[in-house]
Design a protein that fits this description.
Elements lengths: L7 H4 L2 H4 L3 H12 L10 E3 L1 E2 L25 E4 L10 E7 L3 E9 L22 E7 L7 E6 L5 E6 L7 H4 L6 E6 L3 E9 L10 E12 L4 E5 L17 E7 L7 E16 L2 E19 L2 E7 L27 H4 L8 E2 L3 E2 L12 E11 L2 E10 L8 E13 L2 E11 L4 E13 L3 E12 L6 E11 L3 E10 L9 E2 L4 E10 L10 E14 L5 E14 L4 E13 L3 E2 L5 E2 L2 E13 L6 E12 L2 E15 L2 E14 L3 E15 L4 E10 L4 E13 L2 E12 L6 E12 L2 E2 L1
Parallel strand pairs: 1-13, 2-4
Antiparallel strand pairs: 3-12, 4-5, 5-10, 6-7, 6-11, 7-8, 9-10, 11-12, 11-13, 14-15, 14-42, 14-43, 15-16, 16-19, 17-18, 18-27, 19-20, 20-21, 21-22, 22-23, 23-24, 24-25, 25-26, 26-28, 28-29, 29-30, 30-31, 31-34, 32-33, 34-35, 35-36, 36-37, 37-38, 38-39, 39-40, 40-41, 41-42
């Protein structure tokens, strides 16, 4: 890539990148005021059944054969709009308690149907699979997603604003029944979704949005009903394009009550500064879910405990910015997307990991749901005074509503209060979607803190233009110097960031060529502080080949410029001095299809690093030995040379074993080590789903100090936790 003749600052400066966003948004609004031409949506009718349905993966109840199947599935990949290579049939029934789906998936080579995953929420994408998406409010914006393989193994998620589900949205655990069987003609799947798992309006007759997608793994082929073309990059998550599911009459969800108590026991032994403490753990608590209305839920928690939560992945910070760790606690993950506001992993106004990590949660209340076109999320959590921290109250209120087709506005308020301090944030945001998957997004927030005299502000405006062939994203992100939302996450303060990324992604294959799609990208970004000093400039370009086998190969050239007004210190004590730095790097990446018997990825990067140089090598490798055992490991190695401080390494290693006896018993073991902390962590968890929504966890968590040749076990925790879901 030729960049030497151009100044990085000229290319990535606000004068070059700062588009007149107000004019641009006005033009887009003019184009979209008329909306898209209305087209008649496909419709399927659910049939009422008085016959009890046994969900066993065999469609042997006579009523199944009385239902005319939907067979008009359309290929999405490799040929958009093409005829599927295999036939699919879908039938839908309902009664007072469940919505039923019956699928018959024909396959000309049934012995090649991939069905290997047993553990819930596992690597289902490595198998043949089915996805059911239900827009229960018919808001054309949000939906429930249910994913199953030919064995009936489940995963599920919540779709928000037509976006691909985030990791926390995949953590939603819906309660439903599914059974599948591989047959001599393909595979059959039977599904029963209880009405009390869903939220929907209180009406005598309901219409819901519906999309169904089948994935044939060995062919890298996806077929969908209704047809959602490649111009919609969100795929099956493009809720505005769903078909209509009709015929649902007199469905009464009622004011249901779910009570989920837990009991916990265990022991913990810790050694710090040659002092050893031992504690026996015994505790109990409860979560209560009460349906205030069919579309609004009140969630109460008392004495909440997270002993079964998986350990965080080890990370080494080689930058001057805060690291982001995702939320993994079920209580906060449920409908967490309702509270999202800001730029993910950069400036988030609500970040639940601020709650209860260093203090136990004594109790709290959440309200979430939808009234008409308005989504509502409310939260109030209290923590105990401990670890030299006062008792704290955390509150949040989030609202989003549709003002016209595919256009939403919203607001958020958060508050963190102690006996002698208060931090309050107020914000507004909006999104306008158009032209398939394109959108304009903007938000503004302000913090008032009892310890800071003046309010501080953060904001963003961004334009995204994208389809299957092209994409362009540009915008500006501003954060004041003292912007500190106590219930949020801020990666970088005192910044005005302006950036643009553009890409061309032509499809060149239709199933027979080596390469299915190319991806060419160029990215530029400038960050200055509020004093007008340019602190960061980035310019990079890349190319990636996506093969018909779903393997990927990529190459990227990067040029960075950093002006450090103050230095910073790495975790190993190495000091990075203030000054002006220009870094050039090149990186190579390759990733294999995870459905292979052995799969993996590798990333190699070499270039400058704050006046020195850095060689980075990272990768992972995995193998599924059977339906019951999967092993995979990862490594991230950095060799860094600083002219003033010599050479050092920054390395992280991990190994994971996943075991599944069947679809109810499975376990996971994780080993992690990094040479900055010189700590080795062993985490093991066994999970038994004894009834849907109810679990037994057995957890072992050990930490070893390996510094200075030691091999000391300084933390050892064993926990047994039992939960049971009562539905009234």
């Amino acid at each position: 890539m030729v960049v030497a003749r151009w100044s990085l600052w000229k290319i990535s400066s606000p004068n070059f990148l700062n588009i007149k966003m107000n004019r641009l948004i006005f033009l887009i609004a003019v184009f979209t005021m008329h909306g898209l031409s209305a087209t008649e949506r496909p419709t399927v009718t659910a049939h009422l059944t008085d016959t009890p349905i046994t969900v066993d993966g065999i469609l042997d109840e006579a009523i199944w054969q009385t239902v005319q199947p939907i067979t008009e599935f359309v290929q999405r990949l490799p040929q958009d709009g093409g005829i599927p290579s295999e036939k699919s049939e879908m039938r839908i029934l309902y009664d007072n308690n469940h919505l039923y789906f019956g699928f018959t998936f024909f396959d000309s080579e049934p012995e090649k149907v991939r069905a290997t995953i047993l553990n819930r929420g596992g690597w289902i994408h490595r198998d043949d699979k089915l996805e059911i998406a239900l827009d229960t409010y018919l808001d054309r914006r949000n939906a429930y997603l249910f994913e199953m393989n030919p064995l009936g193994t489940q995963d599920d998620a919540l779709i928000s604003d037509e976006n691909r589900p985030s990791l926390d949205e995949w953590a939603w655990d819906g309660v439903y029944i599914s059974e599948g069987r591989v047959t001599d003609f393909g595979w059959v799947l039977e599904v029963a979704i209880p009405w009390n798992t869903l939220r929907f309006p209180s009406k005598d007759e309901l219409t819901m949005g519906l999309a169904v997608k089948r994935y044939i793994n060995r062919k890298n082929e996806s077929v969908i009903w209704p047809h959602i073309g490649l111009e919609y990059t969100s795929d099956v998550y493009q809720v505005s394009q769903y078909a209509n599911l009709t015929g649902l009459k007199n469905i009464k969800r009622g004011n249901d009550i779910k009570i989920k108590p837990f009991g916990i026991g265990g022991a913990q032994k810790q050694t710090f500064d040659d002092e050893t403490t031992s504690d026996n753990m015994g505790n109990s608590g409860v979560d209560i879910y009460y349906g205030l209305k069919s579309n609004l839920t009140l969630n109460l928690t008392y004495n909440t405990d997270f002993a079964q939560v998986e350990a965080d992945n080890a990370q080494i910070n080689l930058t001057r910015f805060n690291l982001f760790y995702p939320e993994k606690r079920e209580f906060f993950l449920t409908r967490s997307k309702l509270f999202s506001f800001g730029n993910p992993k950069q400036t988030e106004i609500f970040f639940s990991r601020r709650i209860g990590l260093n203090q136990d949660v004594s109790g709290g209340t959440r309200v979430y749901g939808q009234i008409g076109k308005t989504s509502i999320g409310g939260l109030n959590i209290h923590t105990h005074a401990e670890n030299n921290m006062p008792a704290t109250a955390y509150s949040a209120l989030r609202l989003r509503t549709d003002i016209r087709d595919r256009t939403t506005i919203g607001a958020i308020v958060t508050d963190v209060s102690t006996s002698d301090s208060q931090n309050t944030v107020m914000g507004i945001d909006g999104q306008m979607r158009f032209w398939g998957s394109s959108s304009v997004n903007a938000w503004y927030s302000q913090v008032e803190d009892s310890e800071i005299d003046d309010p501080s502000v953060a904001s963003m405006i961004r334009l995204d233009l994208k389809n299957d062939r092209y994409f362009l994203s540009t915008g500006q992100h501003r954060v004041d110097k003292d912007f500190n939302p106590a219930l949020g996450f801020v990666q970088r303060q005192d910044m005005i960031g302006t950036g643009i990324i553009a890409g061309f992604t032509p499809r060149v294959g239709d199933g027979d060529e080596l390469i299915r799609q190319w991806r060419f990208t160029i990215y530029a970004r400038d960050v200055q502080n509020h004093a007008g000093i340019h602190e960061t400039g980035v310019l990079n370009g890349g190319i990636e080949a996506i093969l018909e086998t779903r393997d990927k190969i990529g190459l990227k050239v990067i040029q960075n410029k950093e002006k450090l007004t103050t230095g910073f210190t790495l975790g190993n004590g190495v000091e990075i001095q203030k000054g002006n730095y220009r870094d050039r790097k090149i990186s190579f990446s390759a990733r294999t299809n995870q459905s292979r018997g052995v799969w993996g990825n590798v990333n190699l990067e070499k270039g400058d690093y704050f006046g020195g140089n850095k060689t980075s090598m990272s990768g992972s490798i995995g193998k599924q030995f059977s339906n019951h055992l999967t092993l995979y490991g990862s490594a991230n190695q950095n060799i860094i040379f600083m002219s003033s401080q010599g050479e050092f390494t920054a390395n992280v290693y991990g190994f994971t074993a996943e075991v599944a006896l069947n679809r109810k018993w499975f376990g996971k073991a994780i080993i992690q080590y990094d040479n900055f902390s010189e700590q080795l962590q062993l985490y093991c968890r066994i999970n038994w789903i004894h009834t849907p929504g109810s679990d037994l966890f057995i957890v072992l968590n050990q930490r070893y100090d390996l510094s200075e040749g030691k091999n000391d076990l300084y933390q050892n925790t064993q926990v047994l936790k039992l939960t049971y879901l009562f539905q009234i």
